[in-house]
Amino acid sequence: MLRAMALTVALALQDALTRLERVPSSPRSDAEELRSRVLGTGRGALRLLAARELTAAQGETFERWLTRREAGEPVQYITGRAAFRDLDLAVDSRVLVPRPETEGLVEAVLVVLAAERTRGEMPRVLDLGTGSGAIALALAQEAPHARVTAVDASEGALQVARANAEACALADRVTFVHGDWFGGVAEDERFEVVVSNPPYIAESDADSLPADVRDWEPHEALFSGPDGLDAPREIVDTAPRHLVAGGLLALELSESHAHEVAAWLEGAHDWRDVRVLDDLSGRPRVLLARRERGPAIAPAQWGEERR
Ligand SMILES: C[S@@+](CC[C@H](N)C(=O)[O-])C[C@H]1O[C@@H](n2cnc3c(N)ncnc32)[C@H](O)[C@@H]1O
């Protein structure tokens, strides 16, 4: 329990740190995030507010949140909020908590969109497995010339994503579709960019995941068959039918799979310019490839390919 004496911001942090030491993960970062969300301030302002007393309501909320975190619930589900690039998104147990690595995937797509801006096109972007809408909404916000379609097989996730789009004033820029990967778009619909952070964890690796991921985040957002590659395989196999010639495929993958998936594309007639990018810790996490010009898998598209 939190102490009965007046609870300052500094004391609240001290208590939280002591209690969260027992929860694997990052106690300081978790404690600071909970405390700043209780106060409704950014984390940068916390030091300036160290001597301020929490109101009774803030103290009660903080106590409730710490108890939930001690039980292993992810901080973002407790506060209901997750920061992603310039967005502050609503999240709950229907969606994966958006990760910093995925901000790198968005960055890689933005670099390509910016480089090709001179074409004066309105690029069509497809986000597969949108979850909270993090990738789709960040791209819509940061590449205002793009038209974004976002697909998810989970109705619950789409409810969260649509609410985020409304809250971020981006609802008219992103179309949300319920569906099974490319099954969510028309057979002949094509895009300049297909981006996805698909589930990529092997079911057999469940026991080695941190408990706050395995026990709290949606299984359909994490696991992808016996080797973790069911979803990446499906996306890579079908993407050529939905990308224009020269179109970009951008995938987030686990560090143990990125080069393996890249090897599927290297030398395959549908792909060129296959690249794997490292994240900030030097781990290979993002795969980029361009759709090769030439006959698509679907004969219906051959006429369009030659134009
Ligand atoms: C790893 S999460 C990514 C969520 C979000 N894009 C992000 O990066 O934070 C994968 C998402 O794929 C969705 N998903 C799983 N299977 C799917 C399928 N067959 N078709 C479409 N979406 C699927 C899950 O519901 C989940 O939202």
The secondary structure category is: alpha/beta
User: Rg from C-alpha positions?
Assistant: 21 Å
* CATH homologous superfamily (4th level) name of the largest domain: Vaccinia Virus protein VP39
Number of structural domains: 2
- CATH topology term of the largest domain: Rossmann fold
Mean pLDDT: 89
* CATH class identity of the largest domain: Alpha Beta
Largest sheet: number of strands, sense, barrel closure: 7 strands, mixed
N- and C-termini, Cα separation: 69 Å
- Could you name the ranges where pLDDT drops below 50 across 5 or more consecutive residues? 297-307
Strand content: 15-25%
Percent of residues in helices: 25-40%
Named once each, the bound ligands are: S-adenosylmethionine
Q: Which of globular, elongated, flat, extended, rod-shaped describes the shape? A: elongated
Strand/helix succession: HHHHEEHEHEHEEHHHEHEEH
Q: What's the CATH architecture of the largest domain? A: 3-Layer(aba) Sandwich
> Helix tally?
12
Order of neighbouring strands in the sheet with most strands: 5-4-3-6-7-9-8
Beta strands, count: 9
